[in-house]
Amino acid sequence: MRRFLSFVLYLALGLPLALSSLALIASRPWALDREAYKRFVLDDRLYSVLQAPEIARGAPRTIALEGIELDGRALVAAAQKELPVPELKSTAVKAVDAVFDRVYDPTLRGTVGPLDLGQLKGALASRKTALARDYEAGLSSRSDSPVPADADAQAKAARAIGQAVDSIPAKLSLPAPRAYGRAGGPLGLRLGVLSIGRASGEALTQALLNRMTLMTTAMAGLLVAGLAAMGGKGLLESLARAGRYILFPSAIVLAVGVLLAVPGGLLLQSVLPHGLAGMLGGEVGIKLHELFIATFGPIARDVFITGLVGTSLGALLAQARRIEVPRLEGERRPEELE
Prior knowledge:
Elements: H1 2-27, H2 34-42, H3 44-50, H4 53-57, E1 62-65, E2 68-71, H5 72-81, H6 85-104, E3 111-116, H7 118-140, H8 153-166, E4 171-175, H9 198-231, H10 235-260, H11 263-271, H12 274-277, H13 283-318, H14 334-337
Antiparallel strand pairs: 1-2, 3-4
Helix pairs in contact: 1-9, 1-10, 1-13, 2-6, 3-13, 5-7, 7-8, 9-10, 10-13
């Protein structure tokens, strides 16, 4: 009965807490790394993927823009040609800074931002005429288009694109991170009206993450040890049960690390929609593979190492029952007494 109760409590409490602690340990080095997110949004390979021909070929047959139906493939191809990459990079960096400023400064309330979209909106506005012209040229070159390539095609595209650009707000308010909520700070921390600088805010938030990781790991360890002692008979059996309780969540984390280490194959194939997954064999697949290696390489390493250490520790403890304990002459084992 005790073994069954120990296993049920492990599934209900021990396993989720163990997975949470392992996830915190694996993500702690990069979760609050502002520069890592900036490197991702500034990586030219990201925008090369957005401009790859396979994206346009996989676009919907028609796209309704401001109530006007346009040829999807021609529109996407034209947008790729006129993509404002410098402005997209600048806006993405501002968004990263806005979010992290909010994370690092618990005195800010409400929303993050506002995020200035004026530069991006201006770049799109300056390109809308050329975009409509490129759309009309792409539409005329296609014989299977669901939209007729008549004399008004460019005018319709220009009107739809112009209305879409005009509808973009000059400033956008981003939602506040969930970690803050109503408490006014990370993990429920209240600092009142105390103002802190960026450097001290980063140190405080990192310290809170480290403390949360340590507390969660300690709670998971104590719970696993207690449940193992409940379900085991004697020290060695309890150690073996604790090892099995550690082994299972660690194996899950290790598997995630392995999946992240093969970004061009199994992970993308299982996550992406069927239409996008079919692009992996072409130019998009090569660029995505390079981008994922650069982006998820350090993440995969941390996840893999965490899972490997946990799995090794669990496997080692799980063999505790095989340890031969020396006995005094005439001493009998507990199972022999039964």
